Amino acid sequence: MISVHEAHGIISASVPISKTKRISLSEAAGKVLSAEVVATVDIPNFSQSSMDGYALRYEDKDINLSVIGEMAAGTSCQLVIRPGQATRIFTGAPLPEGADTVVMQEKVKCSGNTLSIQDEQFTSGMNVRAKGSEIKQGETAMVPDTLLTPAAIGFLAGIGCHEVEVYYPPDVTIILTGNELQQPGNPLRFGQVYEANSFQLKAVLHQVGISNIRVRTAEDDPKKLQEVLSAALAESDLVLLNGGVSVGDYDFVVQAAEACGITKKIHKIRQKPGKPLFFGIMGDKMVFGLPGNPSSSLTCFYEYVLPALEQWMRHDSHLKKIKATVTHDYSKPSGLTHFLKAFYQDGKVTPLHAQESFRLHSFARANAFIVLPEESTGCSAGDWVKVHVLPG
Ligand SMILES: Nc1nc2c(c(=O)[nH]1)N[C@H]1C(S)=C(S)[C@@H](COP(=O)(O)OP(=O)(O)OC[C@H]3O[C@@H](n4cnc5c(N)ncnc54)[C@H](O)[C@@H]3O)O[C@H]1N2
Ligand code: MOO
Predict the structure, then answer these.
(1) Ligand 1 nearest atom to the CA of residue 194, by list position
(2) CATH class entry, domain 48-129
(3) Which residue of 251, 269, 275, 336 sits with most ligand 2 atoms within 8 Å of its CB, as the best mutation to test the pocket?
(4) Residue 149: pLDDT band with limits 50, 70, 90
(5) Which residues form the signal peptide (predicted)?
(6) What are the sequence ranges of the domains in the chain?
(7) Per-residue pLDDT tens for 178-228?
(8) Which residues line ligand 2 (CB under 6 A)?
(9) Residue percentage of the chain with pLDDT more than 70
(10) How much is the pLDDT for 250?
(11) CATH superfamily placement of domain 20-42+133-167
(12) Which amino acid residue places its CA nearest to atom 4 of ligand 2?
C-alpha cells in the first residue's frame, strides 16, 4: 500500500498530454484555451457614440449649431457634418464624418433645428468610443491557458470570434460491476441494491464540463468484464470502473485490467474511504478502478480522478484547499489518511455523522472533506485542520 501523497505523484506523472480541438465558441464555456486568439478587426469597428445626444465638432461647442439629420445604431447611412453643424445621435451609433464629440441630450438646449451646448464639463472626444479602443486588428485578444468564463466567451463573441481551440475533455466510459445492482425506479428484489455510482459520477463529470460519457455494465464474471473493459478502452480516453476492486471471490477488476494489457500503477492506498483504489494506464488511456461503496467511489473521484482530469484539461483545481477550525472532536487510529465528509462555513468545519463508506446520507449534505493525515489520531474541537471544499 502507498500513501495518498505517493498516489498523487504516480497519477500526475501518468496523465497523458492534453488533446486540443477547435470547437464552436458556444460549446467552449468552462474549457481552457489552447491557442492564442488574435483580433481580426478593430473593435469598435467605427467611432461610436456611448450616449444618446448630439454629435458635433468639439471646436464648435460655443456656437449655435444646426441639426442636419440623425445617426441611429445600426444605420448604414453615413452623414457628413460641416462647421456649425451637428446630428442627432443614439447610443451605439457611428459618429457622422467630421464629428469628434458627443454631447448628452440632457446637456443641450434645442429649439427647432438649432442646438446650443450647456455642459460645463464638456471635453473633446467626450462620449465617443474610439475605433479600436476595445482591441485593434492584429492584437492578441486572449492567451493560451485562459479559462473560458462567461465573460471571456462574451468578449470573444464581441470581437467576432466564433471558434476557439481548447484543451479537450476526455471521452469517459463508466463501467458498473456487480450482479446486485438494480436501476432506481424498479422494485428491489432480495439481495439487490440501487445503482447510485453512475448517477453521482455523471453528475460530477457534467459539473466539471465533461459530457461525453458512456455507461456500460459488466456481470461479476472475469471474461465478461474483460470484454466490456476492452470495448471501453477502444471508445474512451478515461475508464472509471466501479466495484470489484477488492479481494472478494467476485472482484475481477485487477485481473481483467491485466488481461486487457493495462499497466497497473496503483492498487491500494493508505486511506479511508477508498483503500482498494486501482489505477492503471494503457498507452494514453487512464483507467481507475473505483471501490464500489458509493462514498468511496465519489471520494476517490474528487481526490484522484478530478486532479487527473484538471491536469488533462489544464484546468485549475475545483477543490479549494484551505485550513479551518474544526468544531467537534473526531478520533481515528493512525495508519490511514481519512477523508471525512464535513460541512464548511465561515472558517469553521464540522465532521458529519455517518462516515461509513456504504452511506451517502451525510455526503449528500457535505460540502467539504476534512483531511486527517495518516499519522494523526484525530482532531479536537478548535484544532486547525486541512479542508478540501468541494465544487458547489
Ligand atoms: N476482506 C476484505 N474485504 C474488503 C476489503 C478488504 O480490504 N478486505 N476492503 C473493503 C473496502 S475498504 C471497500 S471500499 C470495498 C470495495 O469493494 P469493491 O470495490 O470490490 O466493491 P464491491 O464489493 O463490488 O462493492 C462494494 C459495495 O458497494 C456496492 N456497490 C457497488 N457498485 C455500486 C453502484 N454502482 N451503486 C451502488 N452501490 C454499489 C456493492 O453492492 C457493495 O455493497 O471492499 C471492502 N471489502
Ligand atoms: O475504504 Mo472502503 O472505501 O472504506 O469502504
Answers:
(1) 37
(2) mainly beta
(3) 275
(4) very high
(5) none
(6) 4-17+169-313, 20-42+133-167, 48-129, 320-389
(7) 999 999 999 999 999 999 999 999 999 999 999 999 999 998 889 999 999
(8) 272-275, 291, 293, 296, 357
(9) 100
(10) 80
(11) Molybdopterin biosynthesis moea protein, domain 2 (3.90.105.10)
(12) 273
Q: Which ligand sits closest to the CA of 337? A: 2
- For the chain, the first-to-last Cα distance in angstroms comes to 32
> What b/e string do you get for 301-340 counting C-beta neighbours within 10 Å, with b at 16 or more?
bbbbbbbbbbbbbbbeebbeeeebebeeebebeeebbbbb
Q: Residue 201 in contact with residue 162, Cβ under 8 Å?
A: no
Q: Check residue 251 and give its pLDDT.
A: 84
Q: Of the residues 195, 217, 246, 303, which should be mutated to test ligand 1's pocket, given the most ligand atoms within 8 Å of the CB?
A: 246
CATH topology of domain 4-17+169-313: Molybdenum Cofactor Biosythetic Enzyme; Chain A (3.40.980)
Q: For residue 244, which ligand has an atom nearest its CA? A: 1
Helix residue ranges, H only, 159-287: 197-207, 222-235, 253-259
Choosing from 217, 271, 293, 298 the residue with most ligand 1 atoms within 8 A of its CB, the one to mutate for a pocket test is: 293
pLDDT tens-digit series, residues 274-314: 999 999 999 999 999 999 999 999 999 999 999 999 999 99
320-389 homologous superfamily: MoeA, C-terminal, domain IV (2.40.340.10)
> Cβ distance 32 to 365 under 8 Å?
no
Nearest bound ligand to CA 339? 2
